[in-house]
Amino acid sequence: MAQSGLQPLVHYITIGKAEGRRCGLQPRILDKVEKMVAEAGELESTILLDATLVEPALLGFNYGGQSWPGIVAWQKLFDSLPHAFDHIVFVPWLVRGGADLAAANAVRAAIQQHGNDSTLVVLTDHDRSESIDWLPVGAHVRVLSEFGSSLTRSDRIQMVESLILALRPKSVLNVNSGACWDSIVQKGAALGKVTNLYACLFCRDYTADGRAAGYADTHFRDSLPFLTKVYFDNAGFMHELADDYGVPESLRARMITLHQPIGNVSIGKFKTGSPRGNRVIWAGRFCMQKNVDLLIEIAQLATDFHFDIYGYGDDAYLKKLRTFANVLPNLTIKGPFSATSELPVDEYNAFLYTSLWDGLPLTLADVACMGIPVVASAVGGIPDLVTERTGWLIREYKDAAPYVDALREIRRSPDEARQRARRMMAWVRQEHSWDHFCKTLSVSPSFLD
Question: Which class is domain 71-261?
């Protein structure tokens, strides 16, 4: 055939068929395929219902890993591992965000209980790693992008699946990794045969035009049957999701509230605040979720207060803030902060939080532990923390006026403000301690098992 110079199919039609040559797989290979399909069916019964597998002779040719473009990257990744790991934590990246801190807390707990060599952290979707210092010293970390410069989404999904199947860890924890979520949806039944799958969810996410776009809406429902547990950082969102998707009681038992521990903050750092009673601090990311536009509206409405803004984020929102700071004498941009403990809360009379959607933000929990009165939007898991007894929870959270009314009430009633802040501080110290976090995470079945 090679000597004829003809394309293989043309050669078979014009010459090979007349010579009695056969087209397709040899019988011994077909026997192997039938055996493999039967064995796979024992692991995942729906395979046997797939019409494309009924007649192996009609299946297309696949030459195994040699046809996978990511095979070189996978080999490099596998060769880089010093040993197998009992626990794998998949994250999209490690930036300075709440989900990244939650992942770091889980890694810290696993290493604290089982040692440094027990746990592998894999950055699946991007190579950003600004917060890698949040991980314990000596933690094992791999970044998929470092093993291949042109990995596609499907390559990353395949590498996640291959890593789990090759290492067969005791448990896998997914903290916002897109590649891992896709793997669970596509191969959850098979992966669940070799490891226990866990995931964390925090809140819904939305597109610029208001459509729900987070993993809670795109992957949760299809993944839940394969997950041993799903950890939520707040009870409100957990119940909302269960109700929205009609999760049966048998599966609701897999949904657990796991409050994240507070950071290295000074308990009761807030003492008296500004003697003028009109200083307000806002801290967070400059983005649509944190509702920077509403913050500007509040500053425009409450000209009797001064607002200091600490944070970082999208350039467009930073530019907008700078524009208004140039024309509003009561709005000042103070710059980024690397830790909540750095915020000079004692210079202010209230902490303002304007998020459009959220989980239970750790920045808010950290600030609450300092003892400063809090005014916050009633979204996501925030009502777990801020109530009428512990702060000022704004139900009409898209309007500026209720926030201004709350700030003025704090100024009028400083004793009541202090009492609410003390109640919040006590609740945070109890529910967001490191010991409470580890105790809840350790309840079997557990990612730490």
Answer: alpha beta
